[in-house]
Write a structure and sequence with these properties.
alpha+beta; 3 domains; seven-stranded antiparallel sheet; 42% helix
Length: 700
């Protein structure tokens, strides 16, 4: 009887374990869902429907709009499922018809849906037409018997159809983050090959195909907007210094006046900003008498009187500086208020002339006034040109100096900038009177270079405000940074790392809880695991092998950040009771988890507080080791590792995922090192991959 009960209990326990293992395994194998590429259109429609959830705000025409929105969604789904370019173009034609219908009203929500639709459709139409155009161009070429030429043409057709075309189809149809990233990787490989062909032998159809694909898959992953007030410490500067200025033999006394303004100026190919200031320049004309005597009209007056003259220029100078990817352009502008002071004294031998002149009403004051009037005309014609000439001379020297400094510090190149190992490619600079805008593809130098974003920022991200607004496509930025790090020697020399995680009281700094040791062999790691067991598990030791390639990052449909880690290998301690075999079967001191492609999904929130650190709260929402993951059981010799069954391995992997999901992450991020600014807010991660950061100057 007791034996029967024991067997029943044991059987029930095994069944429960199996059920739990299956549940855990299924949860751990759930891949992160990818948002549809038209997610922005769906969101705009959802915003309208959310408003309609309040009965009094639902218009009488709602049913008609609902039908139109359903037609839009249906057309977008048909596009994603289209098998080829022709079908995609047909679906895009339907999308265009619906966009026209949406634009036939002044109703703001409908126009918002129309704008989101255009943002999605325009680059896709261009790419589809470029693919079809290349195909048509190849087929329209004259017939040839040359086999090499035929093979080259077939390669172009196969490229458009089987390489770029298939990858694009897979990208649009992807339902998981992993599938979307795999398609994107294939697209970038195809684009790299296409760029190489275009550089070697430009051809209009292939050049247009490369440009069309770039506008869709290599957008800036960093977009910064800043107002003039934020840059006041750099813009609000003195242009004029008081003191004497010598030029062409004349000494002018310059007195600096009030600054009259600073700000941005409109520019489509650079960031243009101006500074303006009043000044007064007083210049005695020491050789005025000689100049007057040399003039035929003034010679008679010079015989009667000795004249002196002083020019006075109450001016405003405006310096406009444009920062371009090629360097600086500096242009002065002047507004002059020119006057003249002329004084006269009778000459010793000019009495007869003065007497004759006075008989006709030309006394000293009248002659002096006439000379002053003519002198003023000369000053008004000459001083602006001389001021511009002097300004250009000074600016040329200043431009050369500042250009050299910029290029040495920022390494400005052809639409490229690099600072301390950080590189921005496809750099774009522009400005309006309200703000300056900087965008580009950010990454680290090394590796294959940074890759851009495959989605534009959401429409709400374009709203400007005070301070600096930085829009970051987090997935592509992190992927580019990781790729850059993998190209560095210090990372390539990192074979594995042992993490020792101590059990510290709550609230202890994270740096005190974790230590890392580089390149630890298995025997040393096993020794550390044994030490942990002997100490009563006061710490746990893990060993992580560096993945063979850099991880990739994307946002999923839920707004989680997903890390895709290739060839992940982790050694973890087995429970003590497994040393002689237990639930999983094979005896083990160490479990080696081998995952060709693991997914880790994070949710996070960053709270910004005045005069305090940023508070990062995060958690692992999902851990997906992948269907082809396996677990090895190791006792003392890793060469004799035993491979566990899929069921036993799934149980261990699921337990690891469960442990990760229950581990909160709370960090305080120090802002004190940020130069003169403070982070005011950080948005949640958009399913498109974009996040928005607001930065403002620190209060003085």
């Amino acid at each position: 009887m007791h034996s029967t009960r024991a067997n029943v209990t044991r059987t029930v326990g095994q069944v429960v374990a199996i059920v739990l293992a299956v549940i855990v395994a299924r949860q751990s194998l759930a891949a992160a869902p990818a948002a549809p590429t038209y997610e922005g259109v769906e969101r705009a429609i959802q915003e309208v429907r959310k408003t309609w959830s309040i009965p009094e705000k639902r218009p009488v025409t709602a049913a008609g709009w609902e039908a139109l929105f359903d037609a839009v969604t249906s057309a977008l789904k048909a596009y994603s499922a289209a098998p080829d370019d022709a079908a995609r173009l047909e679906a895009l034609d339907r999308v265009d018809q619906l966009a026209i219908a949406l634009g036939s009203t002044t109703w703001a929500p409908a126009l918002a849906v129309r704008d989101a639709l255009a943002l999605w459709a325009v680059p896709r139409r261009r790419l589809t037409q470029a693919e079809l155009g290349l195909d048509a161009s190849v087929r329209a070429l004259p017939q040839t018997a040359d086999q090499k030429i035929k093979a080259n043409r077939e390669r172009w057709l196969a490229f458009a159809r089987d390489e770029l075309g298939k990858a694009f189809k897979d990208y649009e149809a992807a339902r998981t983050v992993a599938a979307r990233q795999a398609a994107l990787d294939a697209i970038h490989r195809a684009l790299a090959a296409l760029d190489s062909r275009v550089k070697d032998r430009p051809w209009p159809p292939s050049t247009e195909l490369a440009a069309a694909a770039g506008t869709l898959f290599n957008n800036p992953n960093l977009d910064i907007a800043t107002d003039a007030k934020t840059l006041a410490p750099f813009l609000d500067r003195e242009l004029v210094q008081s003191g004497p200025v010598t030029r062409k033999g004349y000494v002018s006394q310059v007195t600096a006046g009030a600054k009259t303004g600073y700000g941005f100026a409109p520019s489509d190919d650079g960031v243009a900003f101006y500074i303006s200031q009043y000044y007064t320049s007083v210049t005695p004309i020491w050789d005025f008498q000689n100049r007057l005597a040399a003039d035929p009209q003034g010679r008679r007056a010079a015989k009667m009187y000795t004249f002196s003259a002083t020019s006075i220029d109450n001016a405003e100078i405006i310096i406009t500086t444009t920062l371009k990817t090629s360097g600086l352009e500096i242009q002065p502008t002047y507004r002059h208020g020119i006057s003249a002071q002329v004084c006269s004294q009778p000459t010793p031998d000019g009495g007869m002339g003065r007497a004759v002149a006075s008989l006709v009403g030309m006394g000293q004051q009248r002659i002096t006034n006439k000379v002053e009037q003519e002198t003023l005309k000369d000053f008004q014609a000459r001083i602006p040109a001389e001021a511009m000439e002097e300004g250009m001379e000074r600016i040329a020297a200043e431009k050369e100096k500042r250009d050299a400094e910029l290029k040495s510090r920022l390494h400005l190149g052809d639409r490229e900038i690099a600072v301390r190992g950080v590189i921005v490619k496809s750099l774009s600079l522009r400005s309006t009177p309200e703000a300056a805008f900087i965008s580009g593809v950010l990454g680290l130098q090394g590796g294959e270079g940074p890759q851009g974003a495959d989605a534009p920022p959401p429409p709400t991200a374009s709203e400007l405000g005070p301070g600096v607004t930085a829009q970051v496509h987090l997935g592509s930025l992190l992927s580019s940074l990781a790729a850059g790090l993998y190209g560095r020697e210090e990372v390539r020399s990192f074979k594995n790392g042992m993490l020792v995680i101590k059990n510290l009281p709550p609230g202890s700094p994270p740096r005190d809880a974790i230590t890392l040791k580089k390149n630890v062999d298995f025997k040393e790691y096993l020794k550390k695991v044994d030490e942990a067991r002997e100490s009563g598990s006061k710490f746990v030791a893990l060993r992580v092998t560096r993945p063979s390639r850099a991880p990739e990052f994307r946002a999923d449909a839920r707004g989680f950040l997903v890390a895709l880690i290739h060839d992940l290998v982790i050694d973890v301690p087995a429970p003590p009771q497994e040393a002689k075999g237990g639930l999983v079967g094979a005896p083990a001191k160490i479990y080696r988890l081998m995952m060709p492609l693991a997914e880790v999904s994070f949710s996070f929130k960053i709270d910004a507080k005045d005069d305090g650190p940023l508070q990062l709260t995060a958690r692992i929402e999902d851990f997906t080791p992948g269907y082809d993951a396996k677990v090895l059981a190791i006792v003392d010799d890793e060469s004799k590792a035993a491979s566990l069954s899929r069921f036993s391995g799934g149980l261990i992997l699921g337990a690891l995922g469960g442990r990760l999901r229950t581990q909160p992450i709370n960090l305080g991020l120090d802002q004190s090192r940020l130069p003169g600014v403070v982070v005011r807010s950080v948005s949640t991660l958009d399913p498109s991959g974009w996040i928005r950061v607001k930065v403002e100057p620190k209060n003085p």
